[in-house]
Amino acid sequence: MSYDDDEYEYLPALSAVLADPSEAEGTVDGWRIERLGLIQGVAANGTIYDPLGPEGGGFPMRPGGTPVYLVSREDAPGVPVAVLVHPGETVPVRTQEWGDRVATPSGLAVVHANPSSTWIEPGAGILKRAWATLHARAAGGDDWMLENLREMLQRASVDPADWPVEPVEGDFTNDWLMIPDEAGTGTVLGVLVSPDGSNTTECLDAEGNTVAILLTFD
């Protein structure tokens, strides 16, 4: 899949914020860049996927944890535009011309570093928290994402009958949540996204080295 240059108009803002890692958040040219924390785990490579989807992408883990950043518009912080996973040490300044499609049929994109060979397990905890959050939103009249998730769970033969339906306060306030993983050995990030799918694209530093992965949402 190829991309137009203007699709990544926020990349200069990302580069500016990443150039000073002491800054947890910054706003540049109308873009809000927020450092969410570190993806941690015992796996040598992290995973970007939908726990109920058919495919995923990977990235090498940085020793001690891999930083992740959220991109949103300054005037719409509750609508994530992209997540940057930054396993490299240098600042990304441009993207590859080609990227890969990542199916997100459940409406949940997950980033983790859990070595489990069970596909759903690393994302189980974040799935349950999303389930509860979407129940609360459905009670307010916005039920399409809950119904979509319910259908995807049924297709995967996952029964959520005993999952909590009361959300933890603050969960997915701006459509993202980072929590300890189910194994207690790392962290997992979940972002509520379009079920129509997402994309991953490698990001390069000034020397042409791949140093980050950009996950963008339709």
What does this structure look like?
The chain is 17% helix and 37% strand. The protein is of the alpha+beta class and 218 residues long. It has one domain. The protein has a seven-stranded antiparallel beta sheet. Strand 9 and strand 10 form a beta hairpin. The protein is globular and about 50 Å long. Residues 1-5 have low confidence and may be disordered.
Q: Could you say which structural class the secondary elements and strand pairing correspond to? A: alpha+beta
Strand content range: 35-45%
**Kindly, what is the distance between the CA atoms of the first and last residues, rounded to a whole number of angstroms?**
14 Å
The number of strands is 12
Helix coverage percent: 10-25%
- DSSP summary: helix tally: 3
Strand ordering within the main sheet: 1-2-5-6-12-11-7
Uncertain runs are: 1-5
| Structural domain count | 1
Sheet with the most strands, sense and barrel status:
7 strands, antiparallel
Rg over C-alpha atoms, rounded to the nearest angstrom: 17 Å
The overall pLDDT average reads 91
What string gives the helices and strands in order? Answer: HEEEEEEEEHHEEEE
Shape: globular
Protein name: DUF4241 domain-containing protein
Organism: Streptomyces luteoverticillatus (Streptoverticillium luteoverticillatus)
